[in-house]
Amino acid sequence: MGKVGKKWISGFWRRIGALFIDVLILGAVGFVLGLLLESTFVDIGEWGRLIGFSISLVYFGVMNSVVSNGQTLGKKALNIKVVNLSNDTISISKSFARYTVFAIPFTLNGIHITNEALLSYLMYPFSFLIFGGLFAIIYLYVCNRVTRQSLHDLIFGTYVVNSEVDHQTVGVIWKPHLLVVVILFIASVILPIYTSQQAKVESFEDLISTQKTINSLSAVTYASVTSGSSIFASTSEDSQTKTTTYVNVQAFISEDNVADEALARNLGEVVVNTYSESINKDVIKVTLTYGYDIGIWSQWFSQTHTFAPTDLLGFE
């Protein structure tokens, strides 16, 4: 007999706690794989996320199904499980599909998108899946207090419940929550329209051209180029502020040599030769980054090299 006075639907913090335990377990697996296959993960770049996704899919897909009584190791530790409305554990196929809906936005988030994709119609499905999916999942996790179902639960009719409590009648999700989710997905489709308009600005086009040139270099696996300014406010009595303008290059490199100042200077030279506005900036910052990201574990090493634009002119 289940515990009396306790809700059947699992609370927010217990569910988050179980997920945290599962993330630690998968992170440990990723850490060990990284020790053994670091160079391979660096070589495959963004495709490494597919490895982490596959491992997580098998883990959550199998464990959250009838095979493991709807419980991952984290859920077992906190006495919660995944079931349907009838309090039955779900099939392995439904469990795999459920986790896929949950994982895709997180797997794609932060992925390096090429300039061509950024300026093409591919941005619409990317934005829909990443921003729409991500914000919808988080919003429902936090705000849907009646059924505690997030996006993947609503789609497949599942609930995360306290395994020690008998089945109880469940309320209905507040309809405005569904309206918010629809708005989030609509906004995610509209967002690329704004970014594509920004890309047509001449200075932004020049930045993209510079980024494309740097990405063509053999030592670089991926690079991003941005322009901006930072403001430093003095704490002294005169309260003076100083604004520093910059061009920032973050270059992911294929060799473990983030201290290579010659390479950083070479990238800085590309900036001043291809982006005319850079000569008017205060500094050119080049951050060399080496490492990998397989989704369940990542390891990065970075070092920033700073140059004055005038020092890069005529460098050979």
Structure commentary:
The chain crosses the membrane at residues 12-35, 47-67, 121-142, 178-195. It holds the Pfam family RDD. This protein is an alpha+beta fold. It folds into two domains: 12-199, no CATH class; 202-312, GMP Synthetase, Chain A, domain 3 (2-Layer Sandwich). The protein is 51% helix and 18% strand. It has helices at 12-44, 48-63, 73-78, 92-108, 115-118, 123-143, 151-156, 175-199, 202-215, 261-274, 309-312, and strands at residues 80-84, 158-162, 220-233, 241-253, 283-293, 298-307. It has a four-stranded mixed beta sheet. Strands 1-2 form a two-stranded antiparallel sheet. A hairpin with a 7-residue loop joins strand 3 (220-233) and strand 4 (241-253). The longest helix is centred in the first third of the chain and has 33 residues, at 12-44. The chain is elongated. The relative contact order is 0.13.
Count of distinct strands = 6
Structural category is: alpha+beta
What radius of gyration results from the CA coordinates?
24 Å
* Shape category: elongated
How many angstroms does the end-to-end distance come to?
79 Å
Transmembrane segments: 12-35, 47-67, 121-142, 178-195
Protein name: RDD family protein
Subcellular location: Cell membrane
Keywords: Cell membrane, Membrane, Transmembrane, Transmembrane helix
